[in-house]
Write a structure and sequence with these properties.
heterodimer; A: 344 residues; mainly alpha; 19 helices; B: 558 residues; mainly beta; 4-stranded antiparallel beta sheet; 5 helices; 7% helix; 35% strand
């Protein structure tokens, strides 16, 4: 990746017009391309960009969208090069900084994403793309009220931004305000039906509000679009498998939990959940194997030691292994239950 | 209508009648009607709440159904709160209440004459004849005082707490926060002993404040230490001895709320289950009346299948799947689901909330009182929960509601239940801050009614008006060698159509409440019981033959 002085880039404060002269006449098409990229309609975007680049060879906006397209298609080096090219020539464009920042975020280069998102908002506090990214970064930093403010502002400016809707949904999800979360995840999923994460979160929150048929439908839609890429959801099968277990569809649950342990084998929660299902299916040997795998995982995924001990004590008791059953029974007794929040 | 349409309609009508034919029982609807208005019962549970919403104000109040005057009809006792922070019953509004059943749907407040106004912040009630004199006595738990009231047989009670030695105080001299109590004869010596479930080490001095001003929330119990439970042994001379330590009870510190008893392993000794709030539940296995082993973890009832505690509150411990093995339902807070544990009969219980169909349905409910009772007399016990969130400001969270309607889940005869609450009549649609509830046949019509206490609103008298015409029997046990109430007697009936049903004598269960001591069985279409087998705590097994249905049967131990 080309080393570019980000500080120089961030220092430039020249206002940049929305569309430079070389793009004149292409505004509507570029706007459609941008929307297509936002909702992951990559083929549409790619075809349009190909035609535009012939008609408007000097239009810098095309470079920006080419960068986004390359990023969406996983061509990382190409995307980086195009972003640098665009931001070098258009350092004052908040959108360029915001999209570049999102690129870094997806590459898990959080420092650069943080810096670029801040610069993007500085340049244009009314740019929805900048506000969404900055809001998301605030959320990641634990500054949820600042993040919420920016996301709400972004949605006011552009209610059709699926990422803004999704991120705002996560705030309500975390606050256990499921009804509001449903509202935003539903919008996010409607605006970008390719976003498996949005369907997953929508399903989780629909379950909480008691709309079980809606939950089922949301999971189904999520599963249909859950492919590798930026909107891939590694826990969709896990969550759907859990839901099916609650609905007593144990074979369906098993099918999805089997997929979950393949897609996230490093996470304790997926093995734990499959072990619980094994217990319901009275497949105690498999339960033992899965519970032990869960025990060995370092990435908890929300499952604490007490839960593992309790499960293992039951598994070994069912298997008649009294020594190990006692070991885990003792550990279960010795491990204090979690201290939940201050209030009910 | 074309002939084809007519025949379709006829087929549908015929199919609708099929369940009756197949099950031999009428699958009429479970219905409840609140007849509080005009009943003379104007009790409103007053929790003495303060703006800061201290822990204590969410916790009352219990209900006891007891026939204190032996006229054959259940009377009703309600516990009440007290002023805060003074913890005193200042004024009538905090008085506990005893209502006499006039046999015509009305009740008379006899609290003053009975001497049951009470003291301090009362919580739970447990009724039974502890001295075998044929009159039902009453134990009342509370935050700053537990009281044993001896029934004098003339409509009055005498506070004998000090003499009896049951003040609810730890061996270190600290008054423990009593919630629920259970009468049982743990050593089968013919005298009822007393178990008291205690909650938190909380006081105004250590009280935390949660939530923001004007939007205070009840603090989590995890902010406080739990307290040990107490077991009092009945000495048979009007006094009791605290045997909590010797019997292996007090070494287990929990946050006890509900308590229920059953002989879950059919060894002839009554066991004790304690529902602990945000802590692991306790199952005290009775080792021949010599000691108790706490086997909650070993039996898989300490936690849910996820290995985590819930806000366990009320509990009932009865056989809901007719296999002769007492199983459990526990109430909890919204977002947790109500745990339903099936007793496998091998020392293990399986968590079956989802399998039984109450998991997703109870997810949004918060519950206190709980009962496993056959409301439609079809021979299959149903579930009832008295619902409300603990937080008066729960509605600040969009998913929670402080005032909730109660719930009834109908047993579908295949190990699953259906939530019938919406169709169970207007009495089941009342949204209130429900707390304890007690189960029993108030009007002696053979159907189990429910009395529910609610903070800040009138208590509900939910008369069971279920349709269907199924048959029933209510059995009153009179122990001779066993304790006089026959508490702990396990009863098995076999009907003419060979249906086998089980239940046992207990007044414990639900939340902070005390139920009808008579044992109820729904019989479906059967009008004759071929055999009734009673296993008394004394070890005596008594068998009756060819008993007709639809009667109140008194069985004397012999």
């Amino acid at each position: 990746m080309r080393a570019v002085s980000l500080s120089l880039l961030l220092a430039a404060f020249t206002a940049w017009p929305a569309f430079a002269e070389p793009c004149k006449g292409a505004e509507a098409q570029l706007s459609q391309v941008s929307k297509a990229l936002t909702v992951n309609a990559l083929d549409i975007a790619e075809n349009a960009l190909r035609a535009l680049s012939v008609s408007y060879p000097d239009c810098p906006e095309i470079v920006l969208h080419q960068a986004r397209l390359a990023q969406a298609k996983g061509r990382i080096s190409e995307a980086a090069g195009l972003y640098y090219r665009y931001t070098d020539t258009n350092p004052g464009d908040s959108r360029g900084l915001a999209y570049f920042g999102r690129f870094f975020l997806e590459q898990r280069d959080y420092m650069k994403a943080d810096a670029l998102s801040a610069a993007a908002v500085d340049k244009n506090p009314d740019d929805p793309a900048a506000l969404v990214l900055r809001g998301q970064i605030y959320l990641m930093k634990g500054q949820s009220s600042a993040g919420q403010n920016l996301l709400e502002k972004a949605i006011k400016l552009d209610p059709d931004d699926p990422e803004a809707q999704f991120q705002l949904g996560t705030i309500y999800d975390k606050a256990k305000a499921a009804a509001q979360a449903v509202e935003h995840f539903r919008k996010a999923a409607t605006l970008n039906p390719h976003d498996a994460r949005a369907w997953d979160y929508l399903a989780l929150n629909l379950e909480v509000v008691g709309d079980l048929d809606g939950t089922e439908q949301a999971y189904q839609k999520g599963l249909q679009v859950n492919q590798a890429g930026r909107y891939h959801d590694a826990f969709l099968d896990y969550n759907y498998g859990r839901f099916l277990a609650k609905r007593n569809d144990l074979s369906g649950s098993k099918r999805h939990l089997d997929r979950a342990v393949e897609s996230a084998p490093q996470v304790r929660a997926v093995w734990f959940e499959r072990a619980k299902l094994d217990m319901r299916l009275q497949n105690y040997q498999q339960a033992r194997a899965d519970a032990e795998k869960a025990h060995a995982c370092t990435q908890q995924g929300g499952v604490i030691d007490l839960q593992i001990y309790s499960l293992l004590s039951q598994v070994y008791a069912r298997l008649g292994d009294t020594a190990l059953a006692k070991k885990y029974t003792d550990l279960t007794r010795e491990t204090p239950p979690p201290v939940r929040g201050e209030q009910r | 209508m074309t002939p084809r349409k007519v025949s379709t309609v006829a087929l549908i009508v015929a199919l609708a009648a099929l369940p009756k034919i197949l099950w031999g029982a009428d699958t009429g609807r479970i219905q409840f009607e609140n007849r509080q208005k005009g009943s003379g019962i104007n009790f409103v549970l007053d929790n003495g709440t303060l703006p800061d919403k201290p822990m204590i104000d969410g916790i009352p109040g219990g209900v006891a159904l007891l026939d204190y005057d032996n006229d054959g009809y259940l009377d009703i006792f309600f516990t009440n709160g007290a002023s805060l922070p003074g913890l005193a019953k200042e004024g009538d509004k905090f008085s506990n209440r005893l209502y006499h059943n006039n046999h015509d749907g009305t009740f008379t407040d006899v609290t003053g004459r009975a001497g049951l106004r009470g003291e301090g912040y009362s919580v739970g009630a447990a009724a039974a004849d502890y001295d075998n004199d044929g009159r039902t006595d009453l134990y009342v738990t509370g935050f700053n005082g537990n009281f044993l009231y001896h029934n004098n047989g003339d409509g009055t009670f005498t506070d004998v707490t000090a003499k009896a030695g049951v003040p609810g105080v730890s061996s270190a001299g600290k008054k423990l926060w009593g919630i629920s109590a259970a009468w049982l004869d743990y050593d089968n010596d013919g005298k009822l002993d007393l178990f008291v479930a205690n909650y938190l080490d909380w006081s105004f001095a250590t009280s935390r404040v949660c939530g923001s001003p004007g939007k205070r929330l009840s603090c989590s119990p995890t902010l406080y230490q739990g307290e040990p439970n107490i077991l009092y042994h009945n000495n048979g001379n009007g006094t009791f001895t605290d045997v909590s330590e010797d019997m292996g009870i007090s070494r287990h510190v929990g946050k006890g709320m509900g308590v229920a008893i059953a002989d879950y392993d059919d060894d002839g000794w009554m066991d004790i289950f304690v529902a602990n709030d945000n802590d692991r539940n306790f199952l005290f296995k009775n080792r021949g009346g010599k000691t108790f082993d706490e086997l909650g973890v070993e039996s898989f009832v300490a936690y849910t299948e996820s290995g985590l505690p819930v806000s366990s509150m009320g509990v009932d411990f009865r056989d809901w799947n007719n296999d002769g093995k007492p199983s459990l339902i526990i109430t909890a807070l919204g977002g947790e689901t109500y745990p339903l544990f099936r007793n496998e009969g091998n020392g293990f219980f399986s968590y079956e909330s989802y399998k039984a169909g109450i998991g997703l349905r109870s997810f949004k409910m918060s519950g206190w009182g709980a009962g496993i009772q056959d409301f439609d007399n079809d021979g299959y016990k149903d579930l009832f929960t008295a619902n409300s969130h603990v937080n008066e400001n729960a509605d600040l969270d969009g998913q929670q509601h402080y005032r909730q309607a109660n719930a009834v889940f109908r047993n579908l005869h295949d190990g699953t239940f259906q939530d019938m609450s919406d169709d169970a009549g207007p009495g089941m649609q009342i949204r209130a801050a429900h707390r304890g509830c007690a189960f029993g046949d108030l009007n002696n019509d053979g159907k189990i009614d429910v009395v529910v206490s609610a903070i800040g609103s009138p208590a509900e008298l939910l008369y069971n008006t279920s349709t269907g015409g199924n048959h029933w029997i209510l059995i009153k046990t009179v122990g001779v060698k066993s304790n006089r109430d026959g508490i702990g007697t396990r009863i098995k009936i076999t009907t003419a159509s060979r249906l086998v049903r089980y239940n046992h004598v207990t007044t414990a269960g639900s939340y902070a409440s005390s139920n009808d001591p008579r044992v109820h069985f729904g019989l479906g279409a059967d009008t004759l019981i071929k055999e009734i087998e009673l296993k008394w705590p004394s070890g005596i097994i008594q068998v009756l033959h060819n008993v007709r249905a639809d009667q109140f049967l008194t069985v004397n131990e012999e």
